[in-house]
Amino acid sequence: MAGARPARILIVDDEVDNRELLQIMLEWRGFHIQTAASAEEALIRAAAEPPDLMLVDLMLPGIDGCQLTAALKEDERTQGIPVIVLSAMNDSVTRKRALSTGAEAYLTKPIDRSELYEQVQTVLDTASAPK
User: Fold this and answer.
1) CA-based max dimension of the chain
2) Is the CB of residue 90 less than 8 Å from the CB of residue 15?
3) Which of 28, 31, 96, 102 allows an S-S link to 73, with CB 3.0 to 4.6 Å?
4) Helices 39-48 & 65-74, crossing angle to 10 degrees?
């Protein structure tokens, strides 16, 4: 739709290289990107200005990605924000744990660019669809 604002995505990863790579890939597709280096920073940013989507690394120091996702889903200010969890771990137990906290999707690192775009667009479309 003409004139629609670009979706805002908050990338949460403690590794600066990961944040920058995701930011470059998604800005190239027209998304507005913000980043956070920790779960604590992400919670503050998300409550202050809720993004349209969050990409959350699973292995964060302190509060991990699953705990962050659960905290987001428990807070009425942030519970509507869709979350895609990113992880280098590709086992079914980890995937199920992440999805059970309320994440809408799970992507395995290294991130495949086309899969990232597809999942981001699918989750955004689902989140904006009339209920």
Assistant:
1) 42
2) no
3) 102
4) 30
Averages of pLDDT over each 10 residues, the chain, 131 residues? 79 97 96 97 96 97 96 95 96 94 96 96 90 64
- Residue entry with tokens 């995937």: 95
Domains of the chain, first to last: 8-126 (3.40.50.2300)
Task: Name which of 18, 33, 4, 14 is nearest 120 in CA terms.
Answer: 33
Cis before 110? omega within 30: yes
For the beta sheet containing 53-57, the strands, ordered from the edge strand earlier in sequence to the opposite edge, are 32-36, 8-12, 53-57, 83-87, 105-108
Task: Quickly list H helices, the chain.
Answer: 16-28, 39-48, 65-74, 92-100, 113-128
